[in-house]
Amino acid sequence: MTATLTPPPRSKPKAAKRFRAFARRWWHQLTAMRTALLLLLALALAAIPGSTFPQRSISAVDVSAYYDQHPDLAPWLDRVWAFDVYTSPWFSAIYLLLMVSLVGCILPRLGVHWKALRAKVPDAPRRMSILPYHRTLDVEANQSLARAVLKQRRWRTTVREAEDGTVTISAEKGQLRETGNLLFHSSVIFMLVGVALGSLMSWYGNRILSEDKSYCNNLQQYDEYGLGAWVDETALPQFCLTLDDFDAQFHNGGPTAYDAAVSYEAAGEEGDYALEVNHPLNIDGTNVFLIGHGYTPVVTYTDRYGQTQTLHQEFLAMDAAMNSEGAFKFPDANVDPETGVVDEDAEVGFDAIFVPTFDDSTAMLLGTNPELDNPVLALTAYTGDLGLADGQPESVYAVNEAQIASGNLEQVNDEVEVIGVGDSMTLPDGSSLAFDGVEQYAVLQVRHDPGGPVVLAGAILLLGGLLPALAVRRRRFWIRWNPDGTVETAGLNRNDYDGLEEECDELTALIAPGHEPSQASSSDESIGGRQ
């Protein structure tokens, strides 16, 4: 009777081992380059809603307008962060996963590449004839000359001497290709970090500033602004800026130069600066850019009681010829000076179009020249309730259309009236609007973006890594002096490189001047299809 040995039951791995195996498997999956590419595609797809729907960080007014236009859909979109895409949890999760994937993919490769740069060049195989390029020299080759030639051609070399007298020179070139690859992939990390810093810590504000006007750096004085998620609006740099003079130059209907003379005060210090396009003023790490210009018509309204009000109103350009639209509003007009009674239905407003160069020889109102040459105002007057007392925000560049539609504002003139500088428009109640002149304004953008230098560094790394990654070819070359007196040379291509044979023939001819490069050994002829 034979006894059978039953193997002991295999014990189940402990929970810690199972967790480590699970984590290791998913870590390798996450840090694979294929996963990084998929996450990059997912990030691009996730950014589509950010360009489709208005974003609060860019314009809260547009988001409110979207709510008014789509009252049923907007709340549902808001629940999935459609109006805050770039700070949403799902976008941030993809972003962080992509960062982790790239870092986990690149860091190990950096270590391997660093070791490869410091390691000796691998020795030639025992049978050099199996390599794609192989030559047996029929003349003598000098070892010192071989080392000098390879050094002059910037090959990294290693010399080995065996106990049987064999001497081998191993040479390698083209490791800059892998360096370029790593720099290129590292540049993506820099750009992602820079964009993330910009999204979280940057802020900007746009301001239209007329000549001889000032403003200080706080959100209440900006026409439009945006804040990063980590920006404290109370911690903005404290400074004030004045536009002393502005000059716009044109040629053939287009601007050629904007020059703004500004003065500023920051931290108790005062200074002057010539602000130009692409030459910003830097104040406490914040840049002030000149990004545009426009015109500010100056008008004086005289009400029925003879009280006057002068208004400097910036207009927004409608086209490249600087034909601009705007409005003049006088909610305090027609107040009886004797009783002080305010008649809310006697408020006055004007919708206006400003034309820098008006050609009265044609029937066209709008001009084609942005320079100030015969400027005019085309006016439509309204009286009634302007709707400014309801507390709702409205555009300063147009009379409230809802008030017109409801009949609270009544149009006074049947046809648009065009007046030039020095002329006036008289209303039926005896009040008038005089066109006093035109000033210019500058469009300023104040911006602080700590992620900009990081993105710039990433762009430099990208360009610095892309060229060697595409142009450099990695290859190896060996020379062996055998104990029997024969000399062999061989080459190996580590990448697609059509010029390997020509380069190795050239090196062989330099090392052994009497050798004919066109002569191949019999072993080469057997693998000629591989050369």
From TrEMBL:
Record's subcellular location: Membrane
Stretches the record annotates as Disordered: 512-531
Membrane topology listed for this record: Multi-pass membrane protein
Keyword ATP-binding found: no
InterPro entries (UniProt xref): Cyt_c_bgen_Ccs1/CcsB/ResB (IPR023494), ResB-like_domain (IPR007816)
Occurrences of domain ResB-like (ranges): 33-504
Top-level taxon of the source organism: Bacteria
Keywords: Cytochrome c-type biogenesis, Membrane, Transmembrane, Transmembrane helix
Native organism: Glycomyces tritici
Keyword Repeat in record: no
Transmembrane segments: 89-110, 182-204, 454-472
Protein name: Cytochrome c biogenesis protein ResB
Pfam families hit by this protein: ResB
